[in-house]
Amino acid sequence: MKKTTLVCMLSAGLALLPVVSAFSAAPNPTPTRQSKLLVDFETDATVTSDPDGSGTSRASVNTTAEFVAEGTKSLKLDFTDLAGWHDPYFVIDLAQPIDIKGHQVLAMDVYIPAESLNPDSTEGAWWQFTPHITTTNAGDESQTTETSLGMRQMAAGWNHLVWDLKTGIDTKITRIAFAGNTNDARGYTGPIYVDNIRVYEGTFAGLHPDEKLIQGFEDAAVKDAFSGSQTVEINTDKQFVHDGNSSLKIDLTGAEGGWTSDVVRADDWGTTLDVSNATALHLDLFVPEGSQPESWNELGYVVIGEGGEVWGTTVGILPGQWNTLIINLTPEQAKMLTNVKGIYFLRNQDSNTPWRGPVYVDNLRAVVPTQAQPTAGE
Questions:
Q1: Taking the model in full, what pTM does it have?
Q2: Using only C-alpha atoms, what is the Rg of the chain?
Q3: 219-228: pLDDT as tens digits
Q4: Same domain for 175 and 73?
Q5: Residue 139: CATH number of its domain
Q6: Both 193 and 285 in a single domain?
């Protein structure tokens, strides 16, 4: 595929620093966590974007403050008439490899104007990014490895996207590429904007200082609150427990079809706590190698609060390690959570390939940022 290279604005930052947004429109659910900036589009770098092989670059520099998460610039990608799966949508080659040792979470901000999402169409809609990162090998920096991370869904407005990195992939990063997907019959009708690409120190799995635990699945009786098409039990096998003594085991063996919310659900497991000032919900998920379908698959969840349901989306996961599934909250959504009463799960996959085993969930919790700084290595 022919590509056009664009020299646009990028900064390869080396200092550890908390995220401080210049514009309040961009969400920042974890402002006290340590992170390292990879790309903020303030100085020169090379961006390639020619997803349809037309020979015309779709990338340029944006200086309109409404579409900037930090600083004064962001990356504008004119995806007008782009539809279906393309790999890559765009590629960022770093001027110098950036050491990400100890950082296991990738995040970025994407702004999508509502008018860019083909609003007059009656077709079903999905708007997705899937990153591929290229890192140097630990034993030989002249060699590199490309790793695909899970798919993330996007909607109109600001999208704060977060991915777990594959365990052990934390050497030096040299390239970030993004594949993308939409309904073939419903392409983009305008540009989107990308900003503030960074990695976070440690992982997001487990309880952090800026979080409150809602449900740790430590009480065996919580199993009785669940019903649905799959079976659940309290697991005590420590290899599938992140914290404490137990986790929730959901047996998905044989589950097939496309998207469904009929997995398992607990509508009311009793009183937990008030997290109506939270900025996000986090849930840890472990999918053992071999449990997942042989083709593409996604999982997600919905939290039931005293004031209503807060929905997440189905996302791609990395098997064989803990993943943190995130629901970023608006203030209006957070107000529904004066008491978190329950949870239910979402599943999406290739309709021809069933699940082959169980998954495990632990640590449903709310992010409630404070002024306290996280400890090193958190």
A1: 0.91
A2: 20
A3: 999 999 999 9
A4: yes
A5: 2.60.120.260
A6: no
